[in-house]
Amino acid sequence: MTKRGNRKASLVDRLANLQPRGIVPSVKIPGTNDWVHVRDIGEKYNAKKAQESFFANYSIAEIVDYRQLIPHTLPTGLKLKNEQLIDKINRWIDENDWNYIEGGEHDGSWVHASYPNRIFLGDSRTLPIRGEVSETVVFPVARNDEDPIGLACHLEVSGAGTRTNVIPNMWTHYDSTRKGRLQAKANARSIRRQKRWAEYQAAGKIKDQTKRNYAIQTLKAKFLSEDILKDNVAMGYDMDDVEMGYDMDDGPYYSDHALHDD
User: Fold this and answer.
1) 190-200 burial: b if 16+ Cβ within 10 Å, else e
2) Geometric angle at alpha carbon 9, from 6 and 15, rounded to 5°
3) Is the pTM higher than 0.85?
4) How far, in Å, CA of 135 to CA of 127, rounded?
5) Between residues 190 and 261, which one has the greater pLDDT?
6) Percent of the chain predicted with pLDDT > 90
7) HEC states along 128-190?
8) 8-state DSSP, 120
9) Cβ contacts of residue 212 below 8 Å, gap of 6+?
10) CB neighbour class for 41 (10 Å; exposed up to 12, middle 13-18, buried from 19)
11) Domain residue spans in the chain?
């Protein structure tokens, strides 16, 4: 009687006769996400294979030339700040009409028409700006007492010597600094509080209780309207389109004659 298959063979013999398959990729296993994707859509896009097929007929020189045409991404982070710093330094030097000395005894120095018969020392910084690309910026340096007009630059060291800042010698008005702006706002708030307090004190001296309460409530509404107007202006609202909840023209508020008893 002829044997059918290997039903009579032992389990050990059957396992020994199995062909090794190794690791089966998920795309070959029915029911997996990859298998379903290939079944419904087709094989996944392979960027590496597509690139290899695209450049299959290109020579090495042609590939190099083609890469030069590929736009690069904009720098970010520290490299972007370095590029912006270099642009600011170059713009500062160009706007102030500095002349660079190249070659000779004073190579790398600077001269300016506002300082005749004077030569300023130069400094430079080389900073990474994009990928492996670095750029060198040169600029004149001088102390503030050497540059009273404020045309050159100076170096400020911070972070315990770990960082050097290039600062222009421009004269900065105190009111345009952050500290100056904060001081101006504080002064304005102080003047506004003092003025309002004086008006409250004047209203509180009215002997007639009804008139006194009316004057105080009118002041509160007036000051609230001023605060709302100030906030709306600060937020950039067009005040022609803003309807105020309190209109000073709707009714009289306290005046000088209302502060005194009849």
Assistant:
1) eeeeeeeeebe
2) 85
3) no
4) 6
5) 190
6) 23
7) EEECCEEEEEEEEECCCCCCCCCCCEEEEEECCCCEEEEEECCCCCHHHCHHHHHHHHHHHHH
8) B
9) 203, 204, 206
10) exposed
11) 1-70, 77-171, 176-259
